[in-house]
Amino acid sequence: MQTTKARILIVDDEKANRKMLKELLVDKAKIIFAKSGQQALELAARHRPDLILLDVVMPDLSGFEVIERLKNDQQTMNISVIFITGLANSDDEERGFSLGGCDYIYKPFKSKLVLARVMMHLELIRQRKLLTEIVHVDALTGIANRRRMDLVLKNEISASERDRTSLLIALLDVDFFKQYNDHYGHGAGDIALKKVSAVLQQILQRPRDFVARYGGEEFMLIIPDCDESGANQIFNNLFALLNEKNINHEFSETSDRLTISIGAVIVDVDNQYNIENAMKYADEMLYQAKKCGRNQVMIKAD
């Protein structure tokens, strides 16, 4: 069951059609309107609707032109699109499906058929989102997993290059975690990892700030638009919050509490890295943090 209403963007230049569709669907979803193809592109990028009902014939951009642009934009390419048309033409249908449309609704509208088609696709979208969450979430901690991390890292490095903004990439490792597991048991180790992941989520302040379980007792932070000064503030908060958790670790060689070591790299306009180099440098910084006594952070910023 969906805990929040799905968002549907209705795109039609005729007011009567928009009104009729709203009356049919307002109880099922949050409705957004666009009167033109260009407005549809702007609203799709801004609101990221779950489903778009897209008129084929419009005065500025046709529905076919709109969907081509949607599917070529990384932000909107996965939005489901149902075409609205008064033309029952097999060639148009074939073109619409080949461009990425998932269905057609024909004018004049038949209320029950419109509702049935829309609800079917909303359920498919719900199931797809659920499957995506399962595939991309770490089962133990509930945060993103390595597969999701790879996608986010690729996108954020590209965005950093495109927008000429800085990007923080950090690898975090729980210090002496093997000793923790050996003496307290793997069940306690799992609880400790959950507590660490909760602290990491707590320091995320913006929608694009990202944390993932990299593997074992390692985690990764990806923080867009973050320079060295911002990174140091984040890490200071992180160390303070973890210390407040007061997770005992009497078998650590660093502290009587559970601690972490961090290796980080700042990607910016002066040192644009690809994924391989960024990971390599973050790993090298993590090695240096461990070599220098653990429970600390090393940042490569130049």
Key descriptive features of the protein:
10 helices, alpha/beta, 302 residues, elongated, single chain
Structure description:
This protein has helices at 15-25, 37-47, 63-71, 90-98, 111-136, 146-163, 177-184, 186-202, 228-245, 275-291, and strands at residues 6-11, 29-34, 51-55, 80-85, 103-106, 167-174, 210-215, 218-224, 260-267, 297-300. It is elongated and about 75 Å long. It has 302 residues and is of the alpha/beta class. The chain has a 5-stranded parallel β-sheet with strand order 2-1-3-4-5, with helices on both faces. Strands 7-8-6-9-10 form a 5-stranded mixed β-sheet, sandwiched between helices.
How would you briefly describe this protein structure?
The protein has 302 residues and is of the alpha/beta class.
